[in-house]
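[step 3/7] fold_predict: job queued, chain A
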Amino acid sequence: MTTPYNTAPMRNKTYFVSDIHLGAVYIANPREHEAKVVRMLQSFEKDCKTLYLLGDILDYWFEYRTVVPRGYIRFFGQLAHMSDMGINIVWFIGNHDIWLFDYLRDQIGMEVIDGNVVRDIDGKKFFLGHGDALYGDSRSFRILRSFFRNRLCQKLYAGIHPRWTIPFAHRWSSHSRGDNPMSHPAVPDPEKERFIIFAREYHTEHPDIDFFVLGHRHIALDYPIDAGARVVILGDCFSQFSYAVYDADGLRLLQFENSESWY
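[step 4/7] structure written:
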């Protein structure tokens, strides 16, 4: 007799992952990278109740009305499997997977969020988001971001054949990473880190927030701020394979396939 998914052992953990960048041209072995991501997600299955994907999960994605971009079959299959098991999946749009509309939402059965939200998780308040809108305050960045989110621009872009748009998008992504895209920035002086500054200012007006969990920066940082609140920047899942997990023991920043707490 088979055991239904909903009678599986108690799921009591919430996982946070960001910046996988599946499909990035600077990843030497895309198949191996995807396989490791899938292994990581499989390791969450036994006790995960909610999986938060905090943006830039795909290095590039554009959903056409009747066409699906190639690739990521094992990854999407693993997400669908987890959803079928009763695990809640929440995907935050980043600045690379910005054109995520309704296909994956409907086919996998997940929630898609564009922006930041505050969520209650087991009695604690979490401020969650990818973080690009918090970090990019230059005029050119704001213009580019609004251009990418403009519905008319999206419809015009959809009219261009994918054979032109997809290679262009991957070249753009690789160029934006600089000469060594696989390297990640050193952890700065936390007091000067913009996410820390934002969190302190936000926490002054919203003292009920317990945790700020963000991606985008490709640094792994767990830093306490005022009144016991903490900021966790998730790092990445292509060079560091860092992630966060929350349960009765608190919020921890870990590294996949490393048995000890990393940070």
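[step 5/7] annotate
Helices lie at 30-44, 73-84, 103-109, 132-135, 139-149, 151-158, 162-176, 194-205.
The chain has a mean pLDDT of 83.
exit 0
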